[in-house]
Design brief:
Blueprint lengths: L3 H12 L18 H15 L2 E5 L5 E5 L10 E6 L14 E3 L7 E4 L4 E3 L15 E3 L8 H19 L8 E6 L13 H4 L3 E7 L4 E3 L4 E10 L15 H11 L15 E9 L3 E10 L2 H22 L4 E9 L3 H4 L4 H12 L5 E2 L7 H7 L6 E3 L11 E3 H21 L3
Parallel strand pairs: 3-8, 3-9, 9-16, 10-15
Antiparallel strand pairs: 1-2, 2-8, 4-7, 5-6, 7-17, 10-16, 11-13, 11-14, 12-13
Helix pairs in contact: 1-3, 3-10, 8-10
Length: 414
Amino acid sequence: MISKEALIKRFISYVTIDTESDPSSQTTPSTEKQWDLANKLAQELKAIGMQDVSIDDNAYIMATLPGNVDHEVPVIGFISHFDTSPDFIGANVNPQIVENYHGGDLLLNKEENIVLSPDYFEDLRLYIGQTLITTDGTTLLGADDKAGICEIVSAMEYLINHPEVKHGTIRVGFTPDEEIGRGAHKFDVEKFNADWAYTMDGSEIGELEYENFNAAGAVVKVKGKIVHPGYAKGKMVNSMYIATEFINSLPKFETPEHTEGYQGFFHLCDIKGDVEETVLQYIIRDHDRGHFEARKDVMVKLANELNSQYGREVIEVDIKDQYYNMKEKIEPVMHIVDIAEEAMKQIEIKPIIKAIRGGTDGSQLSYMGLPCPNIFAGGHNFHGRYEYVPVESMIKATEVICKIAELTALKNQV
């Protein structure tokens, strides 16, 4: 059995280290503070008995657990990221442990009256009677994806201490900067040398995902002309008004707050402007590749129409693809999903197979030659003050890793 107390202690030791990434930085990792946890993890992997532990100049960590069977078994990997999202405060995390959750409201912060309520976050009711780890209401928690790291390290430690569980060679990898879309950019797939891998980066217990969004980022620059407002008639061009025209011309209900399932969206995630210039930051998401390309075309055509309307180039759109739907790379090797599904069923978890409304390192890694579905890590409400993780879900995720390793060895036994 996985030790509940040891798992909690390990998880808290990770989340109390600030590892927030920074999209404005050009370095890897994007913040120096990510090295604090990266170096700790490298040392911890050595301490539990992992072999070939390495940490490169960009803070990518890899390690090996040699197989303990006498027949050939595919090399499998497990991957998680150690950075946390810049969307919310990641410093001074003060985890709260709630034993035997009663099913009602949880007061996270008395001074600011911050409440985690099942009336708003219905999934809480799934975990009545379990142990929850929450924030204190002033920061995120960091279960995305320090829960995944905790589960991988704990699973490797369990397999090392229980050689009766048979498995092939297992590789583990921990990455920086996943939250800003760069987690796989400098991942050395050839060095990792696995036949396939799994990211432990999902949410609710049972999640198993091999589809994700196609993703792009768009920067829309709107140019105006500043003139003294007292003498502006026929001369001033207010970039903020033109930007508003652009925003309002996109489909009103194709935004994150109005979509679900396989529905794509345009998401205006940042805006800065004055009369002279306004800059809009968008992300574009769709599971269907054709619809994805059409969304990009919509933005370009809209800019062209406004430029034509104003008789000059007032809008410039720069769109860059970020990652693609891993389904295309996973479907030819669906047995790797089947193994994970069977592993869950064998330890009495109901698999929830669905498309990710987002992306993981695995989506990029799959296109780099390492097929990489995604498995639950257990947390909920990522990137904000209401984030929490049930400890029992983390224990089950750890057991899933061990069971996948065992099944992979069994299925390849002659």
